[in-house]
Amino acid sequence: MQQNNNVTEFILLGLTQDPMRQKMVFIIFLIFYTGTVVWNLLIIVTLKFSRSLGSPMYFFLFYLSIADTCFSTSTAPRLIVDALSAKKVISYNECMTQVFAMHLFGSMEIFVLVLMAVDRYVAICKPLRYPTIMRPEVCFILMILAWIGSFIHSTTQNALVSKLPFCGPNLIDHYCCDLQPLLNLACMDTYVINLLLVSNSGAICSSGFLLLMISYMVILYSLRNHSEEGRKKALSTCTSHIIIVVLFFGPCIFIYTRPPTTFPMDKMVAVFYTIGTPFLNPLIYTLRNAEVKNAMRKLW
């Protein structure tokens, strides 16, 4: 707890210490974050007010855009501001808040991606039962369960990290507060806590990835009975989804399913799932969709 700590603030070292590269980091990630927020807000407004986009798929896409926006906002603004700051200081309470927000919206994104894969599986493999299985009330209950699961996961993570004593030093070799960098600074044996954290975050990442891969393989296998045009369309969609899943879950599994050690590439790996994937999700899942683009034109 904070009252037992000598450390009341942390210093983030960021992605680089080179002044020229810091300016490049500022420009590049400002563009990425602005694009993420603008595209996702555009999608949120379109899905909210368009009457033609009322299917379960768009219901889940709506919450995916919310999760993407909030997940990126939990890390990107500080990275952008710190790129031009001489001293990258974050207070203890702000650090704990960032950890909570990252894991709340990160796990929410995982749950929504799984629900979207389930929706696609039912639509392609059980088309006649789709309206019965994916009823609006069922989708609503699934989304409530996803929020509850995300909150429990994030609260558990914070409860474990907040019990760590920090005696100094307070330098975090990262651009955000996260579990592994904080474990490295704790002045106690963190083996048991790391085991609990890995069993929590690692289990969610690994099981989510496994479920998604199984669902997409089943979908692709079931396409053998469809027409050639239908196979090409579904294959194009599933391929793009699988690419995003690998880009998101690959770094997550690398970071959260290993002993409490840090590697030089950790920061760049984290960029893929904290900033890169929220930027790509609107382009892959929504803006390639003709129905969404037509709805945007009508709405605006």
TrEMBL record:
Major subcellular site: membrane
Intracellular or extracellular location(s): Cell membrane; Membrane
Transmembrane segments: 24-45, 57-80, 100-118, 138-156, 201-223, 235-256, 268-287
Record PROSITE patterns: G_PROTEIN_RECEP_F1_1, G_PROTEIN_RECEP_F1_2
GO CC annotation terms, alphabetical: plasma membrane
Top-level taxonomic group: Eukaryota
One Pfam family cited in the UniProt record for this chain: 7tm_4
Gene3D superfamilies: Rhodopsin 7-helix transmembrane proteins
Topology in the lipid bilayer: Multi-pass membrane protein
GO molecular function annotation: G protein-coupled receptor activity; olfactory receptor activity
Entry keyword annotation includes Repeat: no
Keywords: Cell membrane, G-protein coupled receptor, Membrane, Olfaction, Receptor, Sensory transduction, Transducer, Transmembrane, Transmembrane helix
Domain G-protein coupled receptors family 1 profile: 39-285
Family: Belongs to the G-protein coupled receptor 1 family.
Name of the featured protein: Olfactory receptor
Species: Loxodonta africana (African elephant)
